[in-house]
Design brief:
heterodimer; A: 509 residues; mainly alpha; Serine Threonine Protein Phosphatase 5, Tetratricopeptide repeat; two-stranded antiparallel sheet; B: 1001 residues; mainly beta; 22-stranded antiparallel β-barrel; 12 helices; globular
Chain lengths: 509, 1001
């Protein structure tokens, strides 16, 4: 008698689709997890863009002080998180939504997929997207020049479907963001994302960038313009990674480049980002400001050396949400769009100052008026009281105050620098801006361990991309070979090859 | 007066010697008691011998039979019947399903070991005691001390992602052996297994059925071979009581070589970088590592009572083990009760029997291995210039800010703790409450036809409770402490019904059986919770109520429930007692294959044997010559819940907190098939010189195909994992047992046995379309991989980058560079296993010596790699004394370098991810595995106070004749597939010695 075999071989601690249909959990419940996984943790963020962009520095000599932070790739796992925890469940949700006649959930899942893939392509360049989920033996990668138009056209249809269903309330129970399932709020995300992507390609394909940027600026659904509109999602009961890595593992601290900007520009957000330290010997170079950061790609002799440096602010220990897209970022995008002459962008100065005000308000920092008016304070040089090899001289000489007579390049540096400071804890886009524009002017790594294994980065350069993941290199070899050719002539699957929109041209205009 | 007797042998006595079945026994030794001369029986079992007078006593002995003394008296002819001795390398062995068979009728290899031999050295775990005593079994014992798990593999590793370990069977019924978690590089503790519940004193004998051929009647689960345990039963006759007590001490025998002369410039490493003055003193503390370990002790006391009458017999035993390990605070205790009874009814046509084993085990602070929460990391790596005594005495310091104790340690490294904080503030408890109960009814329907039905329940209640105090290591312990708790049960219900028919018709004999079996195993049925580094609500309170809200109480992640139904039949035909044919077949229905259409599967076995010595006229020196061959196919079931898994709750969670839905991202595997193993074996069994020399040789080969393999699904597929049936793994090798009795007099006996085996493993193919597919991954500098073209558990590490001339390439700073990829440096499995057992007796003295050798393969020590990079190894100090490390290297400019600064060298090798080449050692080792010396007290008089008593000295792992690895490769950090022959801060090797006392009346 084998009648009970099917039931026996199913785990009673798991849930069947039949039970999940109740309360529409079948299509709705995976969203929380998918949106949570738009962001990574220590090895995907803290030891990658957080470090490369100088937001955070690690006091730990991981793998003998030879690791991602010193340009030797040890961890490369954002890819796996996005395909495993976003793309794969999204594919199922789209199918189930169609089968169960709940098509808007499919629309929503498609938007989440684009949010995930636009972050992932910013790391690797070509990714698997248009052919995703097919049963071919070797699934090809999309080249970036094809990806972006596809993203834009998919955003078009998403927006069309949302527009027709603005009053729909079915998302409410499943929405882990503060939008509470409001479709008009998600429509602002669509427009803001379109603007973000348009700006990414503004140097490599200015025409398409302008068309799409102007479309985003003029769409009646509007952009994320107030902090109440911010795309902020629940941490689902988890600590925000920077707090856990900092307070529980002692593996991350304030970054020296950000110290150079925040202290130099007398930025009130410093106390919202970081915790002061008590050992005055450590910050003797600026005795009135009790913070100290760690250099990007620092020389680390022993973990204990840099552990006493500034942690992230205690506030992060209890924070329940994290930022994915803020009104301040939109304002800075509009400021740059204004410099680029896109219709509907508005005045760059207004947007620039609005961005800073939104950011100060969002982070709860004071003193924004004085900050905006400051024409003299400049980024400071950095001193590592433990190891002088980590010292650097500030490359940037900008101030905060807008000066209409500045050349566009200087204006852009100010915009991107402020955009950079604002986007603390959500750093991938700052790495995009840096590769795209060269701003903010941060130092190179102190210790450069890049070599032929993953690609050599010259002393005056920075990491350009993440290699494709090992599983794909060994398991999808033909597609990888093809993907490398799609990155252009001379491209290699290494960290020194530029992405499509990273034109390598110093001039931004 | 011997001489007199020898000179006047007046009377001639004639007779025959037969076995219990009435067959003549040839080659039986017959001596006149007190004399050295004697004779042997001929092919018909007949003999003649001269004796001096009516007082003469004849002693009959033959391998496989109990010795018998016969007083001649006035008899001129004597008929002697010798009783078979199942404890010897006997003629009758226990085979599958508990069926006793004549060994010569078997068509496959088996080896039987008597319970007394297993108990000789007072092992707490009977599997450990098998080491070296049987051919072809590769045994690893967890280094975690008494109650730890074991790993026993017969004929090589066969299953890539399942287990290759043998099935354990008690009295014909499969036993639950669900192994707990095992340590990895990052830490963990041996979770024990189900075998420690068995009281070695209850074991009558163990039969090892090495191949799938022998075990086909167990179905899938027997595919890796079977270790059959036959327990002691009650015996008809007077009440008999056996006491057994042993006290065994355990001492550390193999610590790494440390240095205590060089200190640090601050920080964690006992190094001074090139260009900075040396920190060096002869006055650093030196003994704290030796002093840290204590002498372990294990006290075992057992009593067994048996008795019965013609219809009913009973067996009762109680055993207690009380042990403390070499690691302070580690203890283990076990209480074990066994009861068995058997009653014959209805003129002996019905036999009802039952058995119960109750066992309770508790182990506290079982030592683990790996980086995290392991006292040995902090102990070994301690910066030499610091004051260890103060850290030892003040492992906790009062923290005013928190109004509570905080760990006192100078390093904040993730892998370092104050060892004494770890011992005293991080209590761990594992407990097992086990019940194995069975009933059996046998009914002799006709004279030759018997029906048996039996049922068995095996139930184990497991608790695994680990607590880590607040203010400990911030990487692995939450600020308010960490609680890792698991409670679950393992349950197995087994029942079968078997019909047997035995008949002799003229020259032919027939043994037939057919049966049905049902087995349901539910493992890891329970819950786990672990707050990890998410803070408990209140410090140091380990209750469910104190768990933070965002921690999920999970059902055990390894929960499984499997049902297997089998129908089997076996037919053995014998011709004239010298030609045998064995046919077996089985059909299984496995629940793990539901929905695949492959849930029912059949597999056959065929074998034959011929006793050539009974067919042909062979030289007299050859007492027995038997050849055998056997071919079988077995199917191995697949893991639980792999066909169509459902969604689970957990992970990152829902919008309002925890408990999101994780959809399965595995490709449904609806065409899953059972794994297939084809096994062939060919054997030769001979005995020479009146059975005083015996040889049993087996060559086997096995091919495993349709392996169940999990693959990361291509990123673009829409899934994360998929499974395939693929691969081809070949194992072949030989097993050899050589038994000899070089000396035998009335007073002195020497029995010697050599067990040897070799297994060659080849991974012919895994996934044809994906030649780079591998099982296993790099665990920080060490990768134990299974790849096509290689062997199971090949070791890959980073070697020095060398030029074509073999010179190590230095970088521009003069630092040795490593190769871009890890390269193959060997295999962790030994090539050749050798065990040499000697049993000697002289009058009342007896001794047993076991030399155990494993040859070939590599061992890998990450411990040594760390000790070097931290500058605490003797090696690193010797290099500093010498001022340089000799090296054959070359600079980027092409200049040859012959020496290098020790700091530069050891900073480039060692730790966990650097150049690991220097840390790969030969795993070959030869040891004095066991030494027993004892004295038997003979009872005297008509009504002796006792029947039997002995006292013996026992020693285990006393010393190595040869060992190159810096640790004992057989004392395993993990008994899983991964991390074999690897040491990552595991417990040091130990030697044990003690006393064993036996007393029966």
């Amino acid at each position: 008698c084998t009648d009970n075999f099917i039931e026996t071989n199913q785990n009673p601690n798991q849930i069947s689709d039949e039970l999940l249909k109740q309360d529409f959990n079948l299509v709705g419940s995976p969203f929380s997890n998918m949106i949570f996984n738009l962001n990574g943790h220590q090895i995907e963020e803290d030891l990658c863009a957080d470090n490369w962009m100088g937001y955070m520095g690690t006091p730990t000599d991981f793998v003998g002080n030879v690791n991602n932070t010193t340009y030797y790739i040890r961890w490369n796992s954002f890819w796996g998180r996005e395909y495993g925890s976003v793309m794969s469940p999204a594919k199922q949700v789209i199918k189930l939504a169609q089968e169960n006649n709940l098509p808007l959930f499919a629309t929503w899942a498609k938007l989440i997929r684009i949010l995930a893939m636009t972050k992932l392509t910013a790391l690797h360049g070509p990714i698997i997207y248009s052919q995703y989920g097919t049963t071919a033996n070797s699934i090809p990668y999309d080249k970036e020049a094809d990806l972006y138009p596809l993203f834009f056209s998919q955003l078009d249809s998403i927006q069309t479907e949302f527009t027709a269903n603005k009053e729909y309330t079915g998302f409410k129970k499943f929405d882990p963001t503060k939008y509470n399932g409001s479709i008009p709020s998600w429509m602002k995300v669509v427009n803001s994302l379109r603007l973000r992507l348009a700006m990414r390609i503004s140097k490599v394909d200015p025409a398409m960038a302008k068309t799409q940027g102007e479309k985003a600026l003029s769409d009646p659904a509007g952009l994320i313009t107030t902090n109440a509109d911010n795309f902020v999602n629940s941490l689902n009961g988890n600590k925000i990674p920077v707090a856990q890595i900092c307070y529980e593992w002692d593996d991350t601290r304030m970054g020296a480049p950000l110290e150079s900007f925040l202290i130099g520009l007398k930025d009130g957000r410093i106390s919202k980002y970081f915790a002061p330290i008590s050992n005055a010997a450590l910050y003797a170079d600026h005795p009135s400001v009790p913070y100290k950061g760690i250099r990007n790609g620092a020389y680390i002799k022993a973990k204990a050396d840099h552990v006493p440096f500034s942690k992230v602010s205690e506030d992060f220990q209890t924070v329940q949400t994290r930022r994915n897209f803020t009104a301040a970022e939109v304002a800075f995008l509009k400021a740059e769009a204004g410099l680029r002459g896109w219709t509907g962008a508005g005045d760059p100065k207004t947007n620039y100052e609005e961005g800073i005000k939104l950011s100060f308000a969002d982070w709860g920092a004071g003193g924004v008026d004085a900050y905006l008016a400051d024409k003299t304070s400049k980024p400071i040089n950095y001193v590592d009281p433990i190891d002088a090899r980590n010292n650097f001289t500030a490359a940037s000489t900008i101030t905060v105050a807008w000066n209409e007579s500045d050349p566009n390049e200087m204006k852009l540096e100010k915009i991107i620098t402020q955009k950079y400071i604002n986007t603390f804890t959500n750093t991938v886009e700052a790495w995009v801006d840096f590769r795209r524009t060269g701003y903010p002017k941060i130092p190179g790594v102190a210790k450069n361990d890049s070599n032929g294994d993953w690609g050599a980065i010259p002393a005056d350069q920075w990491i350009k991309r993440m290699p494709f993941v090992t599983a794909e290199r060994t398991g999808n070899t033909d597609a990888i070979t093809d993907a490398v050719t799609k990155m252009g002539t001379g491209a290699k699957d290494d960290i020194a090859t530029r992405l499509w929109w990273d034109t390598g041209k110093a001039a931004n205009f | 007066n011997k001489k007199q007797i020898n000179s006047r042998l007046a009377q001639e006595i004639k007779g025959t010697v037969k076995n219990g079945k009435g067959s003549a026994i040839s080659g039986v030794n017959i001596v006149l008691k007190g004399a050295t001369v004697g004779t042997i029986t001929n092919a018909d079992g007949a003999f003649s011998i001269n004796v001096p007078d009516n007082n003469a006593v004849l002693v009959f002995s033959s391998i496989g039979y109990l010795r018998k003394e016969v007083a001649v008296g006035s008899q001129k002819t004597i008929e002697v019947v010798l009783v078979e001795d199942v404890n010897q390398l006997g003629e009758v062995v226990v085979t599958a399903l508990g069926i006793q068979r004549e060994k010569k009728a078997l068509t496959y290899a088996t080896q039987q070991i008597g319970g007394s031999e297993l108990r000789q050295a007072a092992n707490t775990n009977f599997v450990d005691a098998l080491n070296g005593k049987a051919a072809g079994i590769d045994i690893k014992v967890s280094s975690s001390g008494a109650g730890g798990s074991t790993r026993a593999v017969l004929r090589g590793n066969k299953s890539l992602q399942g287990s290759s370990e043998a099935l354990y069977v008690i009295d014909g019924i499969p036993m639950v052996n669900n192994k707990g978690a095992q340590p990895g590089s990052y830490g963990g503790t041996d979770g024990g297994d189900g075998l420690s519940a068995i009281n070695p004193a209850d074991i009558e004998s163990i039969s090892i059925l090495r191949g799938a051929n022998a075990s086909i009647l167990y179905g899938s689960q027997g595919a890796n071979g079977v270790i059959l345990i036959t327990t002691k039963k009650g015996k008809e006759g007077k009440l008999s009581v056996d006491f057994n007590s042993s006290a065994v001490l355990e001492k550390v025998s193999g610590l790494p070589d440390f240095q205590y002369r060089y200190g640090t410039v601050g920080g964690d490493y006992s190094w001074t970088p090139v260009g900075t003055p040396e920190v060096k003193s002869d006055n650093y503390q030196k003994d704290y590592i030796n002093d840290f370990f204590q002498t372990g002790s294990t006290f075992t006391n057992s009593v067994a009572i048996t008795g019965g009458n013609a219809n009913t017999n009973v067996y009762f035993s109680y055993a207690n083990i009380s042990s403390k390990g070499i690691m302070p605070t580690n203890t283990y205790g076990k209480n074990n009760f066994s009861f068995r009874q058997s009653t014959r009814l209805l003129n002996d046509r019905i036999t009802i029997s039952s058995g119960v084993i109750l066992s309770s085990e508790v182990s506290r602070n079982r030592p683990g291995a790996g980086y995290y929460n392991n006292p040995l990391t902090g102990l070994y790596l301690f910066a030499r210039d610091r004051d260890f005594t103060s850290y030892k005495n003040n492992y906790a310091v009062f923290n005013e800010a928190r109004n509570m104790d905080k760990m006192n340690w100078y390093s904040t490294e993730e892998k370092q703790n104050n060892p004494y904080w770890e011992l005293n503030r991080d209590p761990k408890r594992q407990s097992y409450k086990r019940l194995i109960a069975n009933v059996k009814l046998a009914y002799d329907i006709l004279e030759n036809l018997r029906f048996e039905v039996r049922a068995n329940i095996d139930y184990n209640n497991v608790l695994d409770d680990k607590r880590y105090a607040a203010s400990g290591n911030s990487v692995s312990v939450s600020p308010n402490g960490t609680w890792a708790y698991a409670r679950y049960t393992d349950q197995s219900v087994y029942t079968d019904g078997i019909l047997t028919y035995n008949k002799s018709l003229g020259d032919f004999s027939l043994n037939a059986l057919a049966g049905l079996s049902y087995q349901e195993n539910k493992y890891n049925d329970g819950m786990t919770v672990n707050n990890g580094t998410v803070s408990l609500q209140y410090p140091n309170v380990y209750t469910f109520a104190n768990m933070p809200y965002n921690v999920i109480f999970n059902s055990h992640p390894d929960y499984s429930n499997t049902i297997k139904q089998g129908a089997f039949a076996n037919l053995s035909l014998g011709f004239k007692d010298f030609l045998f044919l064995d046919l077996a077949g089985r059909n299984d229905w496995a629940s793990t294959l539901a929905l695949t259409g492959n849930q029912s599967y059949f597999y056959p076995s065929i074998g034959g044997s011929a006793v050539i010595s009974q067919i042909l006229d062979l030289p007299k020196a050859i007492s027995l010559l038997k050849v055998r061959a056997s071919f079988s196919q077995t199917a191995n079931e697949v893991p639980y819940n792999r066909v169509v898994p459902l969604s689970s709750i957990g992970g990152a969670g829902g919008p309002t907190g925890i408990g999101g839905i994780n959809r399965p991202t595995q490709v449904p595997f609806t065409n899953l098939k059972p794994e297939k193993i084809v096994a062939n074996e060919y054997g030769l069994e001979t005995k020479f010189f009146n059975n005083r020399l015996g040889l049993d040789f087996t060559y086997y080969n096995g091919v495993s195909t349709s392996q169940f393999l999990s693959l990361a699904a291509p990123s673009g597929s829409g899934y994360t994992t998929y499974y395939v049936n693929a691969g081809r793994i070949e194992n072949n090798g030989f097993e050899l047992t050589l038994n000899a009795e070089p000396f035998r007099t009335d007073y002195f006996r020497w029995n010697t046995t050599i067990n040897a085996s070799q297994n060659n493993n080849k991974i012919v193919e895994l996934i044809a379309s994906n030649p780079n597919y591998q099982v296993g991954a790099d665990t920080e500098g060490f990768a134990s991989l299974i790849k096509a073209g290689g062997s199971f558990n090949d070791v890959y590490v980073y070697k020095f980058a060398r030029n074509d001339a073999g010179q190590i390439i230095l970088d521009k700073n003069g630092v040795p560079t490593k190769e871009a990829t890890q390269t193959l440096v060997g295999n962790v499995n030994p090539k050749l296993l050798l065990g040499w057992t000697n049993n000697l007796s002289y009058r009342n003295f007896f001794a047993s010596v076991l030399v155990n050798g494993k040859f070939g393969g590599v061992a890998f020590s990450k411990t040594e790699a760390f000790l070097d990079s931290y500058g605490v190894s003797k090696r690193s100090a010797d290099a500093r004394d010498a001022g340089a490390v000799p090296i054959n290297a070359v600079t980027p400019e092409g200049a040859t370098v012959t020496s290098i600064a020790p700091y530069t060298y050891y900073s480039a090798v060692g730790d966990r991810n650097k150049i690991m080449e220097p840390y790969v050692f030969s795993r070959t080792n030869v040891r004095l595995g066991q030494l027993v010396i004892g004295y038997n007290f003979k009872s005297k008089g008509a009504n002796p106070v006792f029947k039997d008593a002995s006292i013996s000295f026992v020693g285990r792992n006393l010393f190595f004749f040869y060992k190159k690895a810096p640790f004992d490769p057989e004392q395993a950090m993990s008994t899983n597939n991964a991390l074999q022959s690897t040491d990552v801060f595991g417990l040091p090797s130990t030697r044990s010695y003690g006393l064993n006392l036996k007393f029966s009346f």
